[in-house]
Amino acid sequence: MKAVKKELRDVIKGLKILAQKTEKIEMALSKASAKTVLAAAQRRAAMRVRGVKTRGPRRVVARRGRGMTATDAVYATIKRGRKGVTTTQIKRNTGFDDKKIWNVINRLKTLQKIKSARRGIYVTR
């Protein structure tokens, strides 16, 4: 019986040590994450002071029932590009996936609204 009590005391002591180590790690992580969040906020504030835009380009979002279809959105993006627009730029501006972009491009080519300036670059006619 004394041996069992001694083993239980040893286990309890080990658990207390582990709990202390866990608390130390938690404190270190919270300090690191607080520093990271603070640094990111300071970078954004500095960019705003210098006049740098902190957000990406505006997306043309196609909304049903409001007159803007996917074809209209892609065509508007191509029309805005002076020297032509790549599918990557269309994807970035519209938010559509590759398959939808390819289908719309083929539809616009069939309607003869756009043409390929070079491989992968599209311009209006």
Describe, in plain words, how this protein is organized in 3D.
The protein is mainly α and 125 residues long. The chain folds into two domains: 1-55; 70-124, Arc Repressor Mutant, subunit A (Orthogonal Bundle). The protein is built from four helices and three strands. It has helices spanning 2-50, 70-80, 87-94, 98-110; strands at residues 85-86, 114-118, 121-124. The chain has a three-stranded antiparallel sheet with strand order 1-3-2. The chain starts with a helix and ends with a strand.
How do the helices and strands follow one another from N- to C-terminus?
HHEHHEE
What is the CA–CA distance across the termini? Answer: 93 Å
Overall geometric form: elongated
> Uncertain runs with pLDDT below 50, 5 residues or more?
none
Considering DSSP H and I runs of 4 or more, what fraction of the residues is helical? 55-70%
Number of helices: 4
Oligomeric state of the chains present here: single chain
Can you list the strand order of the major beta sheet? 1-3-2
Largest sheet: 3 strands, antiparallel
For the residues shown, what is the average pLDDT? 83
Q: Which descriptors apply to this entry?
A:
single chain, 125 residues, mainly alpha, Arc Repressor Mutant, subunit A, 2 domains, 3-stranded antiparallel β-sheet
Short description:
This protein is mostly helical and 125 residues long. The chain has helices at 2-50, 70-80, 87-94, 98-110; strands at residues 85-86, 114-118, 121-124. It folds into two domains: 1-55; 70-124, Arc Repressor Mutant, subunit A (Orthogonal Bundle).
